[in-house]
Amino acid sequence: MSVDPEQIRPGMDVVDFNGEQVGTVKAVREADFLIDRAFARDVYAPIESVHAIVGETSTEAGHPRVVIGVAASRVGDMGWPTPN
Predict the structure, then answer these.
(1) Could you count the other beta carbons within 10 Å of the beta carbon of residue 17?
(2) How far apart, in whole angstroms, are the C-alpha atoms of residue 36 and residue 27?
(3) pLDDT on residue 58
(4) What is residue 2's three-state secondary structure?
(5) Of 5, 40, 45, 58, whose CB is crowded by the most CB atoms within 10 A?
(6) What is the pLDDT along the chain (84 residues), one digit of tens a residue?
(7) What single-letter DSSP state applies at residue 55?
(8) In Å, how far are 8, 48, 66, 77 from 11, measured between CA atoms?
(9) Element holding 65 (H helix, E strand)
(10) Domains located in the chain, CATH noted
């Protein structure tokens, strides 16, 4: 899925393809976005990792969230950059 980084906003939940919580969007840059993860180091996930953005329209009930195509348990193993 091609996602415009402007569709991703700080405060949105980030979940994996099974709906498991990964974290919350903390910041957005042109090519990636910072995921604030509880009890784990924050990571910059590439925009290409986004599978979908759901909850944006009235036909998609719920709080808007970013769905990534990586299992929540594997996010820390992806080698994605971390903030300094």
Answers:
(1) 13
(2) 9
(3) 44
(4) coil
(5) 45
(6) 578 889 999 999 999 999 999 999 999 999 999 999 999 999 999 999 999 999 865 455 568 999 999 999 999 999 999 998
(7) S
(8) 9, 19, 10, 24
(9) strand 65-68
(10) 5-77 (2.30.30.240)
